[in-house]
Amino acid sequence: MRLTEPFAPPPEDEPAPGWGQDLGNGGAGISLLHIEYARAGIGDWPTADRWIAAMTSKPLLAHSGAGLFRGAHAVAFALRMAGRSAHVLDHHITALTERRLTKAHERIDRGAPPETREFDLINGLTGLGAYLLSAANPELLREVLNYLVLLTEPIRIDGRSLPGWWTADEQGGHGNLGLAHGVTGPLALMSIAMSCGVTVPGQAEAIEHIDDWLNQWRCGSWWPGRISRDELESGTVSRSGPQRPSWCYGTPGLARAQQLAALALDDPKRQQRAEAVLATCITDDVQLARLGDTSLCHGWAGLVHTTWRAAEDAGDDSELAALLPRLLACWGHRHSGLPTGDGLLEGKAGVALTRQTIVGPATAWDTCLLTARPTQLAAQFEGV
């Protein structure tokens, strides 16, 4: 029995240490699927409860480097998607988030460039902010938003003014554009938060700044995954062709974030542009041919899921809804097989959650991907 079948129980022993608290590739992510199955009546709550129990059976991982996809935040996120209380974990999460913020502000005060894992969605403060969205915690979320606004202010390295998110991960550094690991994650978080009414001074300007920077590096209907120092200096992208149209680094993730920015700013021109770019991408056979698997992170499921969410929020003049049947047919024709693993990002759970989202109705489980509809999240902030 596959672990992603509706009534599949969790394994008696963890396949690897920390597997149960792993949202990306382990038990926490598979729990999301069983919670969604239970809500839809495809599975049942006793099965989901067994997964929740397995996820919470081991000592909590709450070390200082923990992010949304592993440890306390991953467990608490799944609990909240199940409608269960995560208050027992909240003091751990608050303390961890505040420690990460303090460290980030100390780095900013030194004028040093950040590491990607300081601010990104998978490991960094953007991911912790995504959890705070799901937890409807506006006070701590605003602290994260204040940090992200500061992240958009330029820094000086070797006498040159560079974007505040320019990382020091390699010689010369780079500007990462991806939704999973780059500046598009902060853009999506700030945009969804603004649509939910959670704002801080400078947030709208920071959204505009990132969105404009992304437009500067767009190559028709695709973006490079990162900008090198040489490319920044020349103002020209050296890569000659598109990368794969994935959620994590490709056009779907970036265009969805730009659409979310446009919705937050109430800017029809930005929205039309983002939706047109995504429409061109999903009809480009050259880009589609670069998808090598069906996973949520970097395969067909991610393309389909992100486009589906964008189509749900699209304007009346958008082609996205009309193009969905063609895209679904391409998915089935070109890559209908399943991944070998069971997890959310690279396994069967992500594929199954994508299919369940299409069948609907779906919850905002994809808040962890920052593709969720703001209208699904806004109601929980009313009166908070």
TrEMBL record:
<keyword id="KW-0479">Metal-binding</keyword>
<protein>
    <recommendedName>
        <fullName>Lanthionine synthetase</fullName>
    </recommendedName>
</protein>
<dbReference type="Pfam" id="PF05147">
    <property type="entry name" value="LANC_like"/>
</dbReference>
<dbReference type="GO" id="GO:0046872">
    <property type="term" value="F:metal ion binding"/>
</dbReference>
<dbReference type="GO" id="GO:0031179">
    <property type="term" value="P:peptide modification"/>
</dbReference>
<feature type="binding site">
    <location>
        <position position="298"/>
    </location>
    <ligand>
        <name>Zn(2+)</name>
    </ligand>
</feature>
<keyword id="KW-0862">Zinc</keyword>
<feature type="region of interest" description="Disordered">
    <location>
        <begin position="1"/>
        <end position="23"/>
    </location>
</feature>
<dbReference type="InterPro" id="IPR033889">
    <property type="entry name" value="LanC"/>
</dbReference>
<feature type="binding site">
    <location>
        <position position="297"/>
    </location>
    <ligand>
        <name>Zn(2+)</name>
    </ligand>
</feature>
<feature type="binding site">
    <location>
        <position position="248"/>
    </location>
    <ligand>
        <name>Zn(2+)</name>
    </ligand>
</feature>
<dbReference type="InterPro" id="IPR007822">
    <property type="entry name" value="LANC-like"/>
</dbReference>
